[in-house]
Amino acid sequence: MTGFAQTGCPPLILASTSKTRARLLESAGLAFLCEAPGVDESTMRQAISGEDALGPHDVAEVLARAKAEAVSDVAQGAYVIGGDQVLCFKDRIISKPDSMEAARAQLLDLNGKTHQLHTAVALATNGETVWAYTDVTTLTMRKLSPEFIGRYLAAAGDAVLSSVGAYQIESIGIQLFERIDGDFFSILGLPLLPLLDALRRQGAIEG
Fold first, then answer.
1. Distance between CA 30 and CA 9 in Å, rounded?
2. pLDDT of residue 54
3. Tens of pLDDT along 8-37?
4. Which CATH number is 12-202's, of 3.40.50.720, 3.90.950.10, 3.90.1150.10, 1.20.1250.20?
5. Please, which residues have CB within 8 angstroms of residue 184's CB and are 6 or more apart in sequence?
6. Rounded CA gap, 142 and 183, in Å?
7. In this prediction, what percent of the chain has a pLDDT beyond 90?
8. Each residue of 128-137: pLDDT tens digit?
């Protein structure tokens, strides 16, 4: 795709292998490359947890900045987008499930309750973050039977393992929820409107 309003602008890179984030940028008419950031998220999460742990808001931003800067270090002159999302439930940070059994346990834990998603995006160039933003959305799951959760996971398949919270709200995962307060794009993993505004102000896309 030829980038809409990007004529003569610096290259744009998404520091992510997330298909959902890529689809959001494509739908907005942006031309970009995708590069895996090479950041060990589990190690970084451990490093910023513990006795003096950061809150979920800061964890998401630290990881988004790290991803953007890691790719920007070797892609001089480009603008690099990094993103991260943290699920907070009962003051705990919940990681992506690593198996369908873990996904089932996670959904049973969230069942009928409210949790928050902290979604961060960072923009880096020449190895330094020039802008970052973190959005918070609040989601309440409806009361689900264990049987319904089992049918949902069977229908959704392994794709839920790529989603923090074990749901994909852009598809059948919407059936899990009673109420959603916040930005839909942020729930999908990228606060798109603030990002587009930042790209314009940085001259990475035309205004």
1. 11
2. 84
3. 899 999 999 999 999 999 999 999 999 999
4. 3.90.950.10
5. 169
6. 19
7. 78
8. 999 999 999 9
pTM: 0.92
Q: Which of 84, 109, 183, 197 is catalytic?
A: 84
**Domain residue spans in the chain?**
12-202
Q: Measured between alpha carbons, how far is 121 from 193 in angstroms, rounded to an integer?
A: 11
Q: How many whole angstroms separate alpha carbon 65 and alpha carbon 100?
A: 30
Tokens at residue 89, please?
Answer: 């439930």
What b-and-e string marks burial along 134-166, b requiring 16 or more CB atoms within 10 Å of the CB? bbbbebebeebeeeebeebbeebeeebeebbbb
Tens-place pLDDT, residues 148-201: 999 999 999 999 998 888 988 999 999 999 999 999 999 999 999 999 999 999
98 is catalytic: no
Check if the beta carbon of residue 80 is closer than 8 Å to that of residue 13: yes
Q: How far is CA 119 from CA 5, 86, 126, 134, 153, in A?
A: 26, 6, 24, 5, 24
